[in-house]
């Protein structure tokens, strides 16, 4: 066979090389977009100004929207802390072979039944005793008028008449909440918030393990074990504090109930003990406020009973501070006294009573992270 002409061999060699028609991605082809240039200079004034301005705008947008949904975020935080507080009870049932879903249902059912029994059995008694206290208030104020110091203050500022008119006014509750419509809206709002907190608490409890696992996966693999241990310790300490605060408050309420029956204030005992229970949950000042309220009513009823109340609450608060509280909180939080005071004040200034309640476990978590991460890293240098 004769060799192909030279022109055909030349054309075959050219077909093997990149061209605009046969290889569209090759250099010079229509799909070729050129060589990538150097990356942007992150120190360029325009780049820094643009990124900084964009970050400031995003931060402002986030802060504005957080302010708008602040009440919803507060409900979520409260539900998280309640879930952490109920988690030890769920773990108790889990250790005895019960599945977590069933354990969560049992714990939530116990809580709901307890609240329902309290509303049915105790609230009517508290309502009657509060009405009795309101009816007795004018007589107590009349007795105060015989005191020389109170008389001087009343003559100058007309305090007694103002308090009597405010307490004995038939629309006292309406004035407090802004009329009948305000009372209804306040009750509906409280019920709605309670329902939302209950649903969120149930969700957080049932999915706590899955949520923790998903969050721990965000940490690098080399640090994931330590992050998970620190996270579990924080959740355990928060749950221990919430349940411990409830136990301490129950002890204060029950001891006040027994004491008030003994000293002769049985007709107000349940209502006043409930006030002590609620206020004792507030860190630092709650127990003192509850003692002042009970002592003031006791003095108005009988000065001797008031003196007994002063002696009892001074002794009991020392017993609570040095015996009950350390034993209950020994495995949950370890916060110095000064940090407790500062945290409670900051929390109360930011979120009121709820902030004061959440401040101590939050401070305990921050302290633990500081000791385990920052201090340990500094010690290794």
Any descriptors?
single chain, mainly alpha
Outline the structure in words.
This protein is mostly helical and about 375 residues long. The protein contains 15 helices and no strands. It has a domain at about 70-205. The chain has helices at about 5-15, 45-70, 70-95, 100-120, 125-145, 150-155, 160-170, 170-175, 180-205, 210-215, 225-265, 265-280, 285-300, 305-330, 335-380. Helix 3 (about 70-95) packs across helix 11, helix 5 (about 125-145) packs antiparallel against helix 7 (about 160-170) and helix 5 (about 125-145) crosses helix 12 (about 265-280). The longest helix is centred in the last third of the chain and has 43 residues, at about 335-380. The chain is elongated, with a radius of gyration of 34 Å. The model is unreliable at about 5-20 and about 170-180 (pLDDT under 50).
Fold topology:
Layout (H helix, E strand, L loop, with lengths): L5 H11 L28 H24 L1 H26 L4 H22 L1 H22 L3 H10 L1 H10 L3 H6 L1 H28 L1 H9 L7 H40 L2 H15 L5 H16 L1 H27 L7 H43 L2
Helix pairs in contact: 3-4, 3-9, 3-11, 5-7, 5-12, 11-12, 11-14, 11-15, 12-13, 13-14
**Overall 3D shape:** elongated
Strand content: under 5%
Mean pLDDT: 76
Largest sheet: none
Number of strands: 0
Short note summarizing the structure:
With 381 residues, the protein is mainly alpha-helical. It contains 15 helices and no strands. It has helices at residues 6-16, 45-68, 70-95, 100-121, 123-144, 148-157, 159-168, 172-177, 179-206, 208-216, 224-263, 266-280, 286-301, 303-329, 337-379.
């Amino acid at each position: 066979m004769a060799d192909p002409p030279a022109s055909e061999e030349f054309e075959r060699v050219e077909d093997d090389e990149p061209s605009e028609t046969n290889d569209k991605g090759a250099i010079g082809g229509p799909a070729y977009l050129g060589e990538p240039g150097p990356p942007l200079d992150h120190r360029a004034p325009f780049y820094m100004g643009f990124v900084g301005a964009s970050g400031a705008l995003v931060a402002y947008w986030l802060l504005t929207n957080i302010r708008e949904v602040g009440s919803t975020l507060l409900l979520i935080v409260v539900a998280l802390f309640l879930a952490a507080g109920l988690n030890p009870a769920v773990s108790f049932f889990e250790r005895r072979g019960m599945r977590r879903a069933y354990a969560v249902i049992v714990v939530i059912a116990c809580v709901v039944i307890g609240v329902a029994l309290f509303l049915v059995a105790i609230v009517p008694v508290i309502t009657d005793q509060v009405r009795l206290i309101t009816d007795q208030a004018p007589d107590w104020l009349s007795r105060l008028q015989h005191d020389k110091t109170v008389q001087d203050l009343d003559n100058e500022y007309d305090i007694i008449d103002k308090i009597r008119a405010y307490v004995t006014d038939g629309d006292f509750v309406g004035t407090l909440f802004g009329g009948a419509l305000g009372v209804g809206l306040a009750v509906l709002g409280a019920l709605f918030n309670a329902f939302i907190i209950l649903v969120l608490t149930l969700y957080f409890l049932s999915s706590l393990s899955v949520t923790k696992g998903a969050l721990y996966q965000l940490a690098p693999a080399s640090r994931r074990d330590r992050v998970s241990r620190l996270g579990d310790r924080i959740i355990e300490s928060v749950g221990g504090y919430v349940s411990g605060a409830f136990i301490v408050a129950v002890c204060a309420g029950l001891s006040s109930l027994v004491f008030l029956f003994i000293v002769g204030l049985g007709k107000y005992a349940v209502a006043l003990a409930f006030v002590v229970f609620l206020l004792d949950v507030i860190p630092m000042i709650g127990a003192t406020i509850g003692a002042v309220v009970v002592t003031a009513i006791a003095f108005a009823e009988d000065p001797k009973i008031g003196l007994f109340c002063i002696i009892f609450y001074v002794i009991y608060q020392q017993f609570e501070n040095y015996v009950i509280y350390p034993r209950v909180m020994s495995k949950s939080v370890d916060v110095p006294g000064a940090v407790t005071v500062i945290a409670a004040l900051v929390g109360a200034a930011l979120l009121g009573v709820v902030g004061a309640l959440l401040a101590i476990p939050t401070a305990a978590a921050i302290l633990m992270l500081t000791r385990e991460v920052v201090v340990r890293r500094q010690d290794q240098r």
